[in-house]
Write a structure and sequence with these properties.
Structural class: alpha/beta
Distance between the termini: 46 Å
Number of strands: 5
Radius of gyration: 15 Å
Shape: globular
């Protein structure tokens, strides 16, 4: 049970489809009607407070919001609290279904 905020931007049509394909049950999709002027307008990763409220209202498991061009993501837990990048990585690392090996890629010059 997931709420997604697309920031009226680049991920408006992409994110819901990708998340559904990955098995997410979307219970609400916010800010997914870009008009060329409303990108990041009181929504998305720039303003995640609304997502926090909607996650709590729907009693969702989590929320995810992108910024307008899709290069930032903020997640919200079931209590409607913003999770920063360190908290997101820690949650992924603790998930038994998440393969950790792709996260670690040694760089070599030989």
């Amino acid at each position: 049970r997931l709420v997604v905020d697309c920031a009226n931007g680049a991920y408006s049509s992409i994110a819901p489809n990708v998340l559904r394909h990955a098995g997410a049950r979307l219970i609400d999709i916010l800010a997914n009607a870009p008009d060329g002027h409303n990108i990041n307008a009181a929504c998305g990763a720039v303003y995640p407070e609304h997502l926090c409220q909607v996650v709590r209202f729907h009693q969702a498991d989590a929320g995810i919001c992108f910024d307008g061009d899709g290069d930032r993501v903020i997640m919200v837990n079931a209590q409607g609290l913003i999770q920063d990048g360190d908290q997101i990585l820690a949650a992924l690392a603790q998930s038994p279904s998440f393969p950790l090996h792709p996260l670690v890629h040694p760089l070599t010059d030989h």
